[in-house]
Design goal:
About 40% of the residues lie in helices and about 25% in strands. The chain is of the alpha/beta class.
Amino acid sequence: MYIKKIKLINFRNYYNQEIILNEQLNIFFGNNAQGKTNILEAIYIGAIGKSFRAKKDKELINIGQKEAKIEIEYQKIDRQGKIKIELENKKTIYINEIKQKKLSNILGNINIVMFSPEDIEILKDGPSKRRKFLNIMIGQLKPKYIYYLNMYLKTLEQRNNYLRQIKMEKKPKELLEIWDEKLAEYSEILYQYRNEYIEKIKSKINIIHEQITKNEENIQIKYVTDYKEKIKYIQELKKNWTSDIIRGYTQKGIHKDDFIVYINGKEVSTYASQGQNRTVILSLKLSELQIIYDEIGEYPILLLDDFMSELDKNRRKNFLDNIKNTQVLITCTDDFDKKNKMWISYKVKNGNVDKL
């Protein structure tokens, strides 16, 4: 799988830019705030349907313009495809020129693995960042997972609203059984998805990380969840009725899921250096890349935004050596030595991209 061409119209600081990509390594270099990350962001939106950094779509439209467009032409093993996204008052998505009714239809057309500087917070911040990582990875491969996740979150919101009604309006608490049953139903499905993919990460990540660190670091992952099985989870919810009512929200559930990463037996979030933390994230992303390949039979596109920061020369080389048969887009401040690689460099300046 690879992207052949990207066209950006009034997107971020681009007015009308077309970029032809190499099937393998593409280096976008230039000073900060010139538009390098915007290119990766456009591809991310074409794959996932939303930005990894903008909270509102209107932030993506060039200042002074009313609308923006992203067009991506890509090649898969068995077919060509085109994604077009129009950003105006609302987001409109076209797949092969056919307008889509659901945003989720975009998932699975272009598969990506993205690394950005913010990803280092996946392990340092709270569990929500790690759940988001899982949700994006699983959602690309199993779009139905997103449906069940949304249903779970909708049910959770309804249960929380009813908890507050019990407290403030003296509603009968016995009706909580309805929400408990639905939460347990969706929890079971989501738990199975998450547990399956965490096990897949475990089967990949240790080998990858040992290669990047030259066998100096051993990595382990532990899945942390309130869910065990449906009957026990329903019992746990009922046990917490009183405290849930007092607090006005549901304390137990897969909305609190987490995973913990250890290096040489020590928790990364507490003991790892910045360089180690970044290397673990890269190992996670390469594991994701391998899992996607196993699932769909071709490698996803790898997007690396400023990935070289805080990686020493050896870790950087070992990481690049682990990338094979994959289209890669890298942003950095300076062009760099890429011996024995088929590559193209692009100079990015003030929203203009020049192929070198």
